[in-house]
Each structure stands twice: as C-alpha cells, then as structure tokens.
Amino acid sequence: MPHDALDGSPARIPVYRRRIYHADTDAAGIVHHSRYLAILEEARTEWIAGIDDDEFSAFRRGDKAMAVISTRQRFLQPIRLSQIAEVSCRIIDVGKVRLTFAYAIAVDGACCHEAEICVACVNARVERLCPVPQLLRKFDAREDAR
C-alpha cells in the first residue's frame, strides 16, 4: 500500500484532514489502536457526503450502506495528541457488490498508518447486498494503471 498524495482529480478521493483529540488517545497521548478505524470511517463518510449524485442520495438517506467485511492495518509510527492527521484514500478493487479502499494516514508528510478495508454495498431497508454504485467504478485505481 504505497502512500501517495491524492490530488482531487476525477479518479482520486480528496485528502481528509483531522486534528487528534484527547478522546482518540491513550494515557500517553498516542492514538489508541481502536481509534484508527473510526478515523478512516470519518474520511470515507465525509467523502461520500460530498458527492453530488442521485445514486448517492440513498447513502445519505440511510437506504444504502457500506458494511465492513475485512480490515488490515499496519501501524508504522505513533500519532500524538493535537497533531493533524491527513488521511488519503483510494479505491483499489471494485467487484459487483464490494469494494476495497486503501488508506494512508500521514502527519507532517510522514506515513504513520496504512490500512485496507473491504466493504460490501448493502440495501439497508431489506438487509441484502446491492451493486456498487456506478460512480465508484471510475475511482478504481486499476483503471488508472491501464
């Protein structure tokens, strides 16, 4: 999972910036391992909330959701209280009903955390899998490599 800055181009997801608060840290002032997934979820949620597309209105209404299937994380350097974390995210795999996000959290340009999260798209009203929104397919990093 290489760390690369995302530039907001059509096939990229913007960087999410967030200050680290006391609630994120342990007694030593270092982000607790349990908080990383919440920070990554915030980044993905903020990105989806900013998409102005009819298909994504179902996510904003709560009719559709992304359910986490699996996670993988690497803790490279500690992140501390009051630091500004920059979360970059990209879609690295898109299937019919699931997609995989790769994340990197950097502080002052140094990569501190890497993660991959695989999610399934779910129709929340009937609790069934549903297709990945067509708009997300343009963010598939594999397309950039072709």
UniProtKB/TrEMBL annotation:
CDD domains: 4HBT (cd00586)
Domain of life: Bacteria
Family designation: Belongs to the 4-hydroxybenzoyl-CoA thioesterase family.
PANTHER family the record matches: 4-HYDROXYBENZOYL-COA THIOESTERASE FAMILY MEMBER (PTHR31793), ACYL-COA THIOESTER HYDROLASE YBGC (PTHR31793:SF37)
Keyword Plastid applies: no
Entry annotated with the keyword Hydrolase: yes
Record keywords, A-Z: Hydrolase
InterPro entries: 4-hydroxybenzoyl-CoA_TE, HB-CoA_thioesterase_AS, HotDog_dom_sf, YbgC/YbaW
GO molecular function terms attached to this record: fatty acyl-CoA hydrolase activity
Gene3D superfamilies: Hotdog Thioesterase (3.10.129.10)
A Pfam family matched in the record: 4HBT_2
Organism, scientific name: Burkholderia stabilis
Name of this protein: Acyl-CoA thioester hydrolase YbgC,acyl-CoA thioesterase YbgC,tol-pal system-associated acyl-CoA thioesterase,Thioesterase superfamily
